[in-house]
Each structure stands twice: as structure tokens, then as C-alpha cells.
Design goal:
Elements lengths: L1 H20 L4 E5 L1 H5 L5 E5 L7
Antiparallel strand pairs: 1-2
Amino acid sequence: MKTGRRVIAILFFILGSISSGYSQRVAIKTNTLGWLTASPNIEGEFVLSSISR
């Protein structure tokens, strides 16, 4: 079980680093709770316009 916790901690760190560095252009969203229940889900968001509101 310690290996699983370590993998989850590393995953949170990596995803947090990626999304905070490029949050204005690209966003990666995951459903980690769903992954723990064996129903993975991932989505991506991209900027389509250069106009910011």
C-alpha cells in the first residue's frame, strides 16, 4: 500500500506543477477520486481565442 500512496503523491505533484505553469493556455483536469474507484476520467481545456475577459 505504501507504493500506491507514493504514486498518488507523485501524481498530485506532477499535475499540480503542470497546471499551475500553463494555466492560462492549457488546463488538465482529472477525477482522482474516480481513479481510486477504477473509473478513470481525464479532460483537457484549450484556449480558442486570444481575447481574455
